[in-house]
Amino acid sequence: MKILAIESSCDETAAAVVEDGRKVLSSVVASQVEEHRLYGGVVPEIASRRHAEAIVPVVSQALEQANLTLENIDALAVTYAPGLIGALLVGVNFAKGLSLSTGLPLVPVHHLRSHIASNYISNKKLKPPFLCLVVSGGHSHIVMVEDYTKMKIIGRTRDDAAGEAFDKAARTMGMPYPGGIELDKVAESGDPHAFKLPRPTVHDAPYDFSFSGLKTAVINLLHNSAQKGVELNKADVCASFRYAVVDCLCTNFLKAANDLNVEKLVIAGGVSANSLLRRTLSQECEKRGMKFYMPDKSLCGDNAAMVGAQGYYEYLAGKTAGADLNAYATMSIEE
Fold first, then answer.
1. 121 closest CA partner among 298, 295, 313
2. How many of the other CB atoms lie within 10 Å of CB of 222?
3. What are residue 24's phi and psi, to 5 degrees?
4. What are the Cα distances from residue 276, in Å, to 66, 138, 284?
């Protein structure tokens, strides 16, 4: 079964053709990073306009890359939640128009479910059930994936997401957007124990995260040193902050796995590309005799291949939509 998938939840306009949920026949991503870098972050109005400009050529290129036409496509999949509402609407409305004109079934796909599904592309034999740590710029969740379309939130952030904390700390250090990627690179040459940073916990919720205080701690460290005229070693600050964030993520994730007696662990989302997170969980799972899966780094960021992968399983579960499909800025992964 061949699915043409569309993704436009933030600042990447993407389209892909995926066969049977696992095989990527084409994947095209038009990034807006360079433009948003001028403003230090994504400007929603600009993102929506660029999606409107890029979506037709991106979809056309995806079909061309796969050497297919719409006549060879069996269904359409589109990200409809969560994300920037204006950006989502561009993809949703385009997909609805395509569905109406071709008669192809339309499959609405949850963005975070797509990130989890990126692992089905990178790890062909991976099947639920498993426990997944979904970490990105806007979300930090521990999710029990009971089946391809049945998921339960075990833990989540109470304030900032891990990716947001990385980006804001990086911005304070003068790094260009998206800062989390640059922070990860700089941290590789630093001492993770140079600065002692807090490990916030949530009372009575051992699997939940809180990154706001940790983010504030590193920003205060930087501001206080600047006011005193003391120059800190940037690599050491990056390494110490990255170590603290990854320590929080891994501690809660591994505790949840132990308490729930789960031996198959998976990571997904933009922050799953973080070098230390990948290394740490690989090592810890090996020590504990657990199976560990992670997506290829090329699939960690927003893309349409993951939408096509999850769309396949949503379609098999009977989830399709009509011309009344809407986009939603927020929506639980459980819905």
1. 295
2. 18
3. -90, 115
4. 35, 20, 12
